[in-house]
Amino acid sequence: MGTPCHFALFDLKPSFRLDLEQLAARYRELARGVHPDRFADASEREQRLALERSAGLNEAYQTLKSAPKRARYLLAISGHEVPQEVTVHDPEFLLQQMELREELEDLQDSADLAGVATFKRRLKGAQDELNESFAACWNDAAQREQAERLMRRMQFLDKLSYEVRQLEERLDD
Amino acid sequence: MALLQIAEPGQSPQPHQRRLAVGIDLGTTNSLVAALRSGLSEPLPDAQGQVILPSAVRYHADRIDVGQIAKAAASSDPLNTVLSVKRLMGRGLADVKQLGEQLPYRFVGGESHMPFIDTVQGPKSPVEVSADILKALRQRAEETLGGELVGAVITVPAYFDDAQRQATKDAAKLAGLNVLRLLNEPTAAAVAYGLDQHAEGVVAIYDLGGGTFDISILRLTGGVFEVMATGGDSALGGDDFDHAIATWMVEQAGLSADLDPGAQRSLLQAACAAKEALTQADSVEVAHGDWRAELTRQAFDALIEPMVARSLKACRRAVRDSGIEIEEVEAVVMVGGSTRVPRVREAVAELFGRQPLTEIDPDQVVAIGAAIQADTLAGNKRDGEELLLLDVIPLSLGLETMGGLMEKVIPRNTTIPVARAQDFTTYKDGQSAMMIHVLQGERELISDCRSLARFELRGIPAMVAGAAKIRVTFQVDADGLLSVAARELGSGVEASIQVKPSYGLTDGEIARMLKDSFEHAGYDKVARQLREHQVDAERLLEAVQGALDADGERLLDAEERMVIEHQMEELRQLMSGTDGPAIEQQTKRLSQVTDAFAARRLDSTVKAALAGRNLNEIEE
Predict the structure, then answer these.
(1) For a 10 Å CB count at each end of chain A, is N or C smaller?
(2) How far, in Å, are A67, B188, B415, B497 from residue B474 at the CA level?
(3) Per residue, what are the HEC states of A82-108?
(4) Do A169 and B388 touch (CB under 8 A)?
C-alpha cells in the first residue's frame, strides 16, 4: 500500500510509549496544513486532495492515540497483520474477563454508581499494567506471541470500558 | 506581449480588496447575518436597525413577506404564513404528519418524499421557504456591504443529520449563495467566545434554540477549536416550552384540543409572551378569549422540567463521550434565546458546578462566529494566528448487514473529514449484485436507524459465496456530508453515491433512537442474537436446498433424503417464531444430518476436479 507510515507522518520513530500531549500538538500543527478549510477557495482538485490528506491524517491520529490500536498497528508494521478474528487460547484471561463481565452485570442490577466508579478505576489500572507489559516486549521478535496475546487483552479491556460507558448511560435516568 | 490578468472564477483580480463573505445563522425562530467590518464581527441590521429577522415567511398571490411583517400575520393568515420551517428540513411527509396537530399547514405530497406546504403561491417545500429567508439576508448583506458576496458560512445544529444538512445546503444554493461551509452552531459560538475572551482549555457550549438543542465539548488550543464530543436533540427547544404552556392553558381553560389554526397560533403567541415575561417576573397573567389565569414561574418551571432534564442528560453523555470528567470543563457558554429562561441557567450551573457565561448576546453569538469563519475561508488573512476548526459527526454511520442489523463503519464523535473502508463478501454462489444500504443512528437493528440511501453494486463476476471482496468506503467531508462508494476488489467493478436522501425521520426520532439504544440495550442483544440465528439458519437451508437440487438424486438414497428434508421442515417452522436458542439447536441438528452428504459431495467434486485435470493434461 502506498500510504506512508503513521509514525513517519508525525515525524516519530515507531514506539509504543508515546507522549500523547506531544502527539496532539503535532496533530494540530499538521491539521492546520492540510484541512479543507485552508483550501476553501482553491481548485476542485486541490480541495479533493485536502479532503483525502486530512482524512488520512485523522485516521493516523486516531490509530496512534488509542493504545490497543497503536499496539495492533505496531505489530502489523513490525511483522505481519494480526488477524482480526481468531480463536483465543488464553484461558486464564478469558476466565478473568467472564468474572469482570459478571461483576458489571451485578452493578447494573443493583444500579450501584459508586461501584461503577470503583470498577472503572480497577479497569484503568489493569489497562495501564497491560500497556507497560506490551511496551516491554513488542519489539522483541522472540516474544512476538506474548505481544500478540497482550494486544488482544488490550482490545478486550477496551471493549469492556465501552460497555462500562453504556452502563453509565443506562443508569443515568 | 500583453499582460493578461488571469483570475480563477470567483477570485478577485485585485489582491488587496477584501472579499465579502458572511456568516448566517438560519434559526428556527430567528435568523441573522453577520460580517467582519473593520476587524470586528457584527450582525448586520436592516433599514429599521433591527439585526434579528424572524424566521417567518408569508406568501401572497403576487409577493413574499419575510420577517416581522410575516410573523405578525401568523394568526390572521395561518395557512400562508410559515413559521419554524427549520423543524421540517430534511423530513419526509410521513414524518411531518406525525408532528401533526402542532402544525396548521395543509401539506401536499410532491414528486419527492418531501412535504410541501400548500399556499396561495402553490406548494412550497421547506427548502424553498428557507431559501426565501436566506434571500432576504443575502439582500440585506449585499446592500449593507456594498458588493456581491463571495460566499457564506451557514450554521446548522451540530445534531443535524445528513438529510437535514443536505436540505440546508440546497436552500442556500436556491438562494444564490455560494456555501463556503456548513458550520455547527455550537462550534461557531465557541469561535466567537474563544476569540473574544482569548480562552484556552476545555469549554462546553450549551445551545438551546427555538427548535433544537446542542451540547458540544471543545478543547481550545492556540486558535485550534477541537470538538471532543457533541450531542443533543434535534427536536427540543423554546417552541416546546411554548407548547407546554399552551397545553396547560387548554387544560386550565377547559378548551377543546382541536382548535382552528388561527386560534392555535394566537394561543401559542400568548404562551410565548408569558414565557418571555417570566424571565423577569415571578408570575404573569395569561388570557385566552374571556378566560384568564395566573402562571407562576414555579408552575412554569415544573412544566418544562422534563425538557430541561433531557438536555442535561445529553450534556452528561457528551462529557462521557469526550473522555473527561465534568470538573475538567473550564467554562460553560450559553447560546440560543431559550437559555434566557432562569430555570435553564440554574440547572446548567448546578450540573457543571459553575456559573454559565452569558456575556455575548445568546441570539447573536452563532452568527458572529460564523462570520469570522467565513472571512477566513474567503481567503482574507486574519491578524495573528489562523483559526482552525476540527469538528465531528454527531451520529454513527453504518451499513445494513445480513439479517437487518446495522454495522457501524464510523462511530459518532469521529473527527471529520474522515474516510473509512469496510470489506464485505457475497453470501450466495454466483451472486452478481449486492445491495448497499447506508444508515445513520446508534441502534443495532436497522429498523431503528435512519435510512440515508440504498444503491446496488452490479456486475460482480460469478464466484463461490465468500470469494468476492467488496470494499465499501464512507467519506464524510468538512461540511459533515457523506458519500459512499463500493468496489469489488478482484474485478474493479464500482458503484458510488453522493448520499442525498429525499425524506427523513420523524421529528424527535434521532433523540428517541439514541435514548432507546440505551434503554433497549438488553432487548437489542436478544433481538440481535435471534436475527443472527435466523440468518445462520437461512444460509444453511439455502445451501442444503442447493445441494439437494444439484446432487440429491445422485448421492442420496430415498431414506437419507427424507431425514434431511424432515429436519429442514422442522427448522423452517422454528424460523417463523422468536425462539433463538431453538433455532440454533435445530440449525446444528440439520447441519449434523447433512454432514455425510456434504462429505460425499466434496469427494465427488475432488474426483471431478482431478478428472478434469487429467483430461487437460492428456489434451496437452
Answers:
(1) N
(2) 24, 26, 14, 10
(3) CCCCCCCCCHHHHHHHHHHHHHHHHHH
(4) no
- pTM score: 0.80
Q: What are phi and psi of B21, to 5 degrees?
A: -140, 145
Nearest-Cα residue of chain A relative to residue B323: A165
**Burial of B9 from C-beta contacts in 10 A (0-12 / 13-18 / 19+):** exposed
ipTM of the complex: 0.90
From A57's Cα to the closest Cα of chain B, the distance in A is 9
- Report yes or no: B446 and B400 within 8 Å, Cβ to Cβ: yes
DSSP count for chain A of H helices, then E strands: 7, 0
pLDDT of B611 reads 44
d(CA B473, CA B2): 49
Determine which of A47, A54, A124, A158 to mutate to test the interface with B (most B C-beta atoms within 10 Å): A54
A159 at interface of B, judged by CB pairs closer than 8 A:
no
List the grid coordinates of B323. 473522555
CA distance B306 to B327: 25
Three cell numbers at B302?
A: 415544573
For B587-604, letters b (16+ CB in 10 Å) and e give beebbebbeebeebbeee
In B146-222, which ranges are continuous DSSP H helix?
162-174, 185-197
Extract the residue ranges of chain B whose pLDDT is less than 70.
1-17, 97-103, 109-114, 257, 381-385, 496-525, 528, 602-620
Task: Sort residue B403 into left (φ over 0), alpha (ψ -120 to 50) or beta.
Answer: left
The verdict on whether B25 is a catalytic residue reads yes
